[in-house]
Design a protein that fits this description.
About 0% of the residues lie in helices and about 55% in strands. The protein has about 120 residues and is mainly β. The termini are far apart. The chain contains no helices and 11 strands. The radius of gyration is 13 Å and the shape is globular. About 30% of the residues are buried.
């Protein structure tokens, strides 16, 4: 079983930065892929980006590109999401997920809330 725990969410003002962390443990994969998603109230879940065990990252071409950056630490087993120039529309519950052997995101954390005030 794989466990993922997000942390680092909170209440910030527009223009601030925030760094979220995803710690994973258990039966993880040496060549992992971890993705970050978010879901705002009344909206569908949105893919933000993913990073591989080797550090290759790709991002959604949406509104977060250029403001959000992924990084990973293979010693600590963490994947971080650095979020800069936050906007009120970034308010959402942020999740990390790990892809299983099939390539689909089979393992999910509980999420961490990010609220950006104007």
């Amino acid at each position: 079983q794989v466990q993922l725990v997000e942390s680092g969410g909170g209440l910030v003002q527009a223009g601030d930065s925030l760094r979220l962390s995803c710690a994973f443990s258990g039966r993880t994969f040496s060549r992992y892929v971890v993705g970050w998603f978010r879901q705002a109230p009344g909206k569908e879940r949105e893919f933000l980006g993913r990073i591989t065990w080797s550090g290759i990252s790709t991002y959604s071409p949406g509104s977060v590109k250029g403001r959000f950056t992924l990084s990973r630490d293979n010693v600590k087993n963490t994947v971080d999401l650095q979020m800069n120039s936050l906007k009120p529309e970034d308010t959402a519950l942020y999740y990390c997920a790990m892809a299983g052997e099939s390539g689909t995101y089979d393992y999910w954390g509980q999420g961490t809330q990010v609220t950006v005030s104007s």
